[in-house]
């Protein structure tokens, strides 16, 4: 792996498989490699609130024998109280890695540029790579071969959608994306993913009609209609995204064995109904758990010598 983990597109298919293999080991034995990060400290710089990202990284570093320092927005005020460059250079003298959860993707890139220690993208408005790797690891636990899987994402073409795209094409999965016309994925991300897909044989399809997209899908995935930072658009988006709700009627068009996924937090009754989220087809909380194991694998590959 490179020094930093910023985007799934930076990984080779072999590196993704190595992360999955290591995550499988760690899931079987949570205390394995319990001294791998002994004496090492990891900063969690969070400009956005978090449940899964914070807890999974804090617990993961602890289980690997390391220590975390949680830094709230007001603790650092990246780029306001102090330049990102100076923060990166200073923290590099104290720490062994930085996990950053922020708004602008450029903040992640700038931290990585000036930091001499690994920077892990815990989330930006453009990408959510740890989430996507954990999601595909979860699918891999449930199906025989990933390259036979069609993953359909329904909703806003956001950061989760972008990272799922990169992960799918890297390992040869097919992906369908159903969004309203004005909420399609980022053009640059889509172009990059399509270029990778030409080499791996993945098929990417865009839809505006969720019913057409969901037909015969192996996996149906959704996320909130208004991500953090888009709160002022909630009511507008409810009107636009109404027909993109994952409910029993829509899901009936997929394969009977369809897996249902959501990265959480879920707005039950909006993008997904209770009966679907709590159904036997749902693997939502398997996804949530696997954040811990996959992120531990990433930490080990960056810091613990498991290249």
Features:
single chain, 307 residues, alpha/beta, Rossmann fold, 2 domains, five-stranded parallel beta sheet, four-stranded parallel beta sheet, 9 strands
List the helices and strands and how they pair.
Layout: H1 13-28, E1 41-46, H2 52-63, E2 67-71, H3 73-76, H4 84-94, E3 97-101, H5 105-114, E4 119-123, H6 129-142, E5 150-154, H7 159-171, E6 174-178, H8 187-200, E7 204-207, H9 210-214, E8 219-222, H10 234-241, H11 248-251, E9 259-262, H12 274-277, H13 284-303
Parallel strand pairs: 1-2, 1-3, 3-4, 5-6, 5-8, 6-7, 8-9
Instruction: Supply Rg.
Output: 19 Å
Instruction: Output the CATH class name of the largest domain.
Output: Alpha Beta
**What is the count of structural domains?**
2
Outline, from the CA principal axes?
Answer: globular
Q: What is the count of β-strands?
A: 9
Description:
The chain has 307 residues and is α/β, with parallel strands linked by helices. The protein has two domains: 8-128 and 290-303, Aspartate/ornithine carbamoyltransferase (Rossmann fold, 3-Layer(aba) Sandwich); 130-287, Aspartate/ornithine carbamoyltransferase (Rossmann fold, 3-Layer(aba) Sandwich), CATH 3.40.50. It has helices at 13-28, 52-63, 73-76, 84-94, 105-114, 129-142, 159-171, 187-200, 210-214, 234-241, 248-251, 274-277, 284-303; strands at 41-46, 67-71, 97-101, 119-123, 150-154, 174-178, 204-207, 219-222, 259-262. The strands form two sheets. Strands 7-6-5-8-9 form a five-stranded parallel beta sheet. A four-stranded parallel beta sheet has the order 2-1-3-4, sandwiched between helices. Helix 8 links the parallel strand 6 and strand 7 (204-207).
């Amino acid at each position: 792996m490179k020094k930093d983990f910023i985007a799934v597109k930076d990984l080779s298919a072999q590196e993704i498989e190595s992360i999955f293999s290591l995550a499988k080991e760690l899931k079987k034995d949570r205390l394995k490699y319990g001294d791998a990060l002994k004496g090492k400290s990891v900063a969690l710089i969070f400009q956005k609130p978090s449940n899964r990202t914070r807890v999974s990284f804090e617990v993961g570093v602890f289980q690997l024998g390391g220590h975390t320092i949680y830094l709230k927005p007001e603790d650092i005020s990246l780029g306001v109280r102090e330049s990102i460059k100076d923060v990166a250079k200073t923290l590099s003298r104290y720490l062994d890695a930085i996990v950053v959860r922020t708004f602008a993707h450029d903040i992640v890139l700038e931290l990585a540029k000036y930091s001499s220690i690994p920077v892990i993208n815990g989330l930006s408005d453009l990408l959510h790579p740890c989430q996507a790797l954990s999601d595909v690891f979860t699918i891999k636990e449930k199906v025989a071969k990933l390259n036979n899987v069609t993953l359909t994402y329904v909703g806003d073409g956001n950061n989760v959608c972008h990272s799922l795209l990169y992960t799918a094409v890297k390992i040869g999965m097919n992906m369908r994306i159903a969004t309203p016309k004005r909420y399609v994925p980022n053009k640059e991300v889509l172009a990059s993913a399509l270029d990778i897909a030409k080499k791996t044989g993945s098929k990417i399809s865009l839809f505006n009609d969720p019913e057409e997209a969901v037909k015969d899908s192996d996996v149906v995935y959704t996320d909130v209609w208004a991500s953090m930072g888009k709160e002022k658009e909630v009511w507008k988006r409810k009107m636009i995204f109404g027909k993109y709700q994952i409910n029993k009627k829509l899901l009936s068009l997929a394969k009977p064995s369809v897996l249902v996924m959501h990265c959480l937090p879920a707005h039950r009754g909006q993008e997904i109904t209770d009966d679907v989220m709590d159904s036997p087809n749902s693997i939502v909380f398997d996804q949530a758990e696997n954040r811990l194991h996959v992120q531990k694998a990433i930490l080990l590959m960056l810091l613990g010598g498991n290249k």
